[in-house]
Design brief:
The two termini are 34 Å apart. The strands form four sheets. A five-stranded parallel beta sheet has the order 8-9-10-7-11, sandwiched between helices. A three-stranded antiparallel beta sheet has the order 1-2-3, with no helix packed on it. By secondary structure, the protein is mostly helical. The protein is globular.
């Protein structure tokens, strides 16, 4: 798109400072109030007229201003009779402040001599020049950063309160330059893919500068790229009507052409013309497991796969699928090839074990959430559904060169959503099945090693000297291993650790083990024999660790969790785990984390079934559950001090990890999410289901995470069903209350109400304080959302009494704030304010921060309805700051929405529109459709009030569609907004 053809402010060439600026040097600002400093000391610049003289001299950048020029600058064509004397007086006073070397007299005029870097305006000009050069060189991120620095130098209106015609003209010039810089920065925002974030600012700017077509053009592009095509077209209609009414002209050709491109759904317009450079700088994942140092053979496959990956840049998508039986070396080959190809994928490499050979294969939604986080996507920005995650994943990969290694896939259906869709990226897949139904994939069938390759691998591990003297025995060993690399590696590792054994001894032992095995299919027979040999040579403590650790579900296990499961201190557990790594029976996934090959895990579990009593197996998993529960409860207590939920959790026999830092505590929770939720789903027995539900309660932050919400919901559903199966109404009531909250946060109010009502039915029959408090609280919230205010009031009053009886002040404050919102809906504004103030007072007494923000949010709503907009804005702004710091994206978005309502009521529609746009961006993938429709309704009202009626209609129609699908009562009020005879004042 063409740039605005209006006048441009000349930006001088960058010049180096004449000398370094010292700590006590003078410096000046004009991009705001005109001020002078000496070091950190703010100097008095005198009267407004004296500041006008200082301004005129500073803006000449060291050039002399004659007395006549200064008089014109001060008074224009009507100077007073004593104008020259007045100028001299002001100059004398300034000289005393700044020094004779700074303000000098020459040629009948005056000049200020300072270093170039001492004035904010010249610094801004130099940074702007650097930004232009960076953009011309294709470095958009750097250009954007520099322009943001320039704009950050402004402190309100330039030359604020400085009188005189010269200052007026310069103020206008500087404001125009500021606006041009803003347009350039917004243009760069769109080039680097920040279109959703740009909509809010552009909406406010188009309201402030309604006739500036360049801003309208940028807004249309930003909306179109955000998937809001109808709104983008409505912006054109609004602009055309406004220009005709105000100026009697049509939009400029560039705007009309843009409209046609949007009507055609131009794919090129949907993304920057050039490859975008993400901002901030994208993360470069490096997730490949370490390659084995003794990789041997497979040279033809290495060459074949390597050449495919090397040509990925010019392909639509390079997908290679390696198939073969378990233990044949698929993962080792793929990892080795991927490491060799890293130079072709400078933007990173992603890796996942899809656990396709296990009983519970990884869900594509979960894998996509993990990949998106690794690529720099915030949890809150990760959508809920598989299709939305896959679309965001492909968009995130667009323009980047990334290799994706999908290991141990179950079938083609599992991996299709995980495949990139743009040139430059490649996927390498391993599976036990041939991916014949994976369109376009290059299929590689990996067979067992040749005898020569197998012998070479065995020799590299054991040593040439030992093998050379017993070559026939070595061939017998690799043949007994079925020429399978995994079996050869384990057998060779065992021999390498036994210096007194000969190769012949190993061959004899392995042959004996094979005779004992007959229950497996032929393909796994050699591997099982090798496992038996390796397991049989373990020391008793190592063997116990091997079989017990295999019982835990989850992709891997941390050292701390393993120590808890084994009932050992971390140092002893680490020694055992590292010994198992040395035998190749366990892999070290990362420092402090361990995992099994899927075949080894199955074997370990078989050993546990055979060699461990049932009570010991159950005790091991119980200790693991205790560890997760105790640690998660500590994280919950740290985040929510005073909340008595942790006091009502089942007691644990083991302590967990202890954190003092909030950030590290949350990092642990999110890092362990997969293992923790797998543990919940595994704990379905009568003895563990209550603790499993307690673990969900303690890890509720995961429910609000875009990346983990689906797993959390699945785990809650499993334990709810388990509680029903074992006949535990106590656990069932808690699980249903938890599920009600999950559904409510996602805007699924029918399902939320169903779960909450069933929990309420169970509540009288269970002696559980937590359920008695939280079930009515949750159902009351849902009833309020569904406009069932009388029932909501009764339920929340009941919850408030229950929390109070429990001594749970945090819960009582929460119920009071929820009740305040119900009173608002019932028109009882005074009591709503009082209830919210009581809740805030309780939070204040407890010294809570995050929960206090929830209270201030409720109080802000009540104050707004009480026609106290200033106070309402203050409380909501305070809440917004805390929600942002605490990474509470749902509440951040809702607070922005409420601030938009306050601004709309206060007669500030432009600010309201900008805040509503911010709310839409934050709530893009969280909160559900009902909340989004409410934001769209307010956005439409704000747009209508600033004269963008066509775009307002689009917002209301979209909101109405959502409300009608949900059968929500809000559809009536939105229908009234869409009535044809409506003026802006009716918004």
């Amino acid at each position: 798109m063409d740039r605005d053809s209006g006048p441009r402010v000349r930006v001088p060439e960058q010049r180096a400072p004449e000398k370094p600026v010292t700590a006590d040097a003078l410096r000046f600002t004009v991009l705001g109030p005109v001020r002078a400093w000496r070091g950190s000391e703010l100097l008095s610049s005198g009267s407004p007229q004296q500041r006008a003289l200082l301004t005129a001299l500073l803006l000449r950048e060291g050039r002399t201003a004659t007395a006549g020029e200064l008089i014109d600058a001060f008074w224009g064509e009507a100077p007073p009779s004593q104008a020259l004397a007045t100028i001299r007086t002001y100059a004398s006073r300034l000289r005393k402040i700044l020094g004779q070397d700074t303000l000098v007299s020459e040629s009948g005029g005056y000049a200020i001599r300072i270093d170039r870097g001492a004035l904010d305006l010249t610094l801004a000009e130099d940074l702007a020049a650097e930004a232009e050069k960076a953009r011309a060189a294709g470095d958009r991120c750097q250009a954007r950063t520099l322009i943001n620095k320039v704009l950050g130098l402004w402190d309100g209106e330039a030359l604020a309160s400085v009188p005189g015609p010269y200052a007026d003209n310069q103020r206008t010039r500087l404001e125009e330059w500021r606006l041009q810089l803003t347009e350039t920065r917004l243009d760069l925002d769109l080039e680097v893919g920040c279109h959703a974030e740009a909509v809010s600012e552009l909406t406010a700017l188009t309201a402030a500068h309604p006739l500036r077509e360049r801003l309208r053009e940028l807004l249309m592009v930003a909306l179109y790229r955000s998937g809001r095509q109808a709104e983008a077209l409505a912006v054109y209609a609004d602009t055309r009507r406004l220009l005709a009414e105000e100026l009697g002209v049509d939009p400029r050709p560039e705007l009309a052409q843009l409209q046609q491109r949007i009507l055609r759904a131009d794919e090129e317009l949907a993304r920057p013309a050039d490859e975008p450079a993400p901002a901030p700088a994208p993360l470069r994942p490096a997730q490949l497991p370490a390659t084995v140092p003794d990789f041997t053979g497979r040279s033809a496959f290495v060459t074949e796969l390597g050449s495919r990956l090397a040509t990925a840049e010019g392909s639509v998508m390079a997908v290679s699928a390696v198939a073969g039986i378990g233990g044949v070396g698929k993962t080792t080959l793929a990892v080795h090839v991927a490491h060799q190809a890293r130079r072709h994928f400078p933007d990173g490499q992603l890796y996942v074990d899809l656990q396709g050979a296990g009983a519970r294969a990884a869900e594509p939604e979960t894998v996509l959430g993990s990949f998106l986080r690794a690529l720099g996507t915030a949890d809150s920005a990760i959508p809920d559904t598989l299709d939305e995650r896959a679309a965001l994943y492909r968009s995130t990969l667009d323009g980047r060169r990334i290799l994706i290694l999908l290991d141990n896939a179950h079938d083609a259906a599992q991996i299709r959503p995980l495949l990139p869709g743009t040139p430059g990226c490649a996927a390498l897949v391993t599976s036990r099945v041939r991916m014949v139904d994976l369109a376009g994939a290059h299929l590689v069938d990996l067979d067992v090693m040749s005898p020569e390759e197998a012998l070479a691998l065995f020799t590299r591990i054991v040593g040439a000297e030992r093998v050379g003297s017993e070559r026939k025995a070595a061939l017998d060993v690799v043949a007994a291993c079925g020429f399978l690399p995994l079996a050869i590696r384990i057998a060779a590792s065992r021999l390498a650790a036994r210096r007194t054994w000969t190769v012949s001894v190993l061959a004899a032992k392995l042959a004996d083990e094979r005779r004992r095995l007959d229950e497996l299919q032929a393909g796994d027979l050699a591997v099982k024999a090798t496992f038996e040999l390796g397991y049989g040579q373990l020391e008793p403590a190592q063997a116990r660790a091997f079989r017990l650790l295999g019982l835990a579900d989850g992709p891997d296990i941390s050292l701390a969790a393993a120590a808890a499961l084994l009932d050992l201190d971390p140092h002893a557990a680490e020694d055992l785990l590292e010994a198992l790594v040395d035998t190749s029976l366990v892999e070290s996934a990362a420092p402090g984390r361990y995992r099994y090959h899927d075949l080894v895990r199955l074997y370990a579990r078989a050993c546990a079934e055979r060699d461990e009593r049932a009570v010991e197996r159950e005790s091991a998993l119980s200790r693991l559950l205790d560890f997760y529960l105790a640690t998660a409860a500590g994280v919950y207590a740290l985040e929510r001090p005073g909340d008595r939920t942790v006091d009502h959790l089942e007691a644990t026999e083991r302590e967990g990890l202890a954190f003092t830092d909030h950030g590290r505590a949350l990092d642990w929770l999110y890092a362990e999410a997969g293992c923790l939720l797998a543990c919940v789903q595994q704990s379905r027995g009568a003895a563990s289901v209550r603790r499993a539900v307690g673990l969900l309660l303690a890890s509720k932050d995961l429910a609000e995470s875009g990346a983990n919400a689906r797993q959390f919901e699945s785990a809650a559903t499993v334990v709810r069903d388990a509680a029903v199966d074992v006949g535990d109404p106590h656990a069932e009531a808690r699980a249903r209350t938890t599920l009600a909250q999950v559904h409510s946060m996602a805007g699924r109010f029918d399902q939320a109400e169903d779960e909450a009502r069933k929990a309420m039915v169970l509540a009288p029959s269970v002696d559980d304080v937590w359920t008695h408090c939280n079930a009515p609280n949750e159902l009351g919230i849902i009833a309020g959302y569904r406009n069932q205010q009388v029932e909501a009031e009764a339920l929340l009053t009941q919850a408030c009494s229950a929390f109070r009886a429990d001594g749970n002040q945090a819960g009582e404050a929460s119920a009071l704030c929820n009740l305040s919102r119900v009173h608002l809906a019932m028109g009882r504004t005074a009591s709503a304010v009082q209830l919210a103030e009581e809740g805030v007072a309780l939070y204040n007494r407890m010294g809570l921060t995050l929960r206090l923000a929830n209270g201030r949010y409720a109080l802000g709503l009540a104050l707004a309805r009480a026609n106290r907009p200033g106070e309402a804005e203050g409380r909501l702004t305070e809440a917004l700051s805390v929600f942002r710091e605490s990474r509470q994206r749902l509440w951040e978005g809702m607070t922005l929405f409420r601030l938009a309502e306050v601004q709309l009521t206060a007669g500030q529609p432009a600010q309201a529109a900008a805040l509503a746009e911010q709310a839409l961006t934050v709530l893009l993938h969280i909160g559900g459709e009902w909340r989004r429709a409410n934001v769209l309704t307010v956005l439409g009202q704000a747009l209508h009030a600033i004269g963008q009626a066509d775009r307002a209609q689009v917002c209301w129609r979209e909101a109405l569609s959502v409300f009608e699908q949900l059968n929500s009562p809000e559809s009536e009020s939105v229908s009234r907004l869409l009535s044809p005879a409506r003026s802006p004042s009716e918004s």
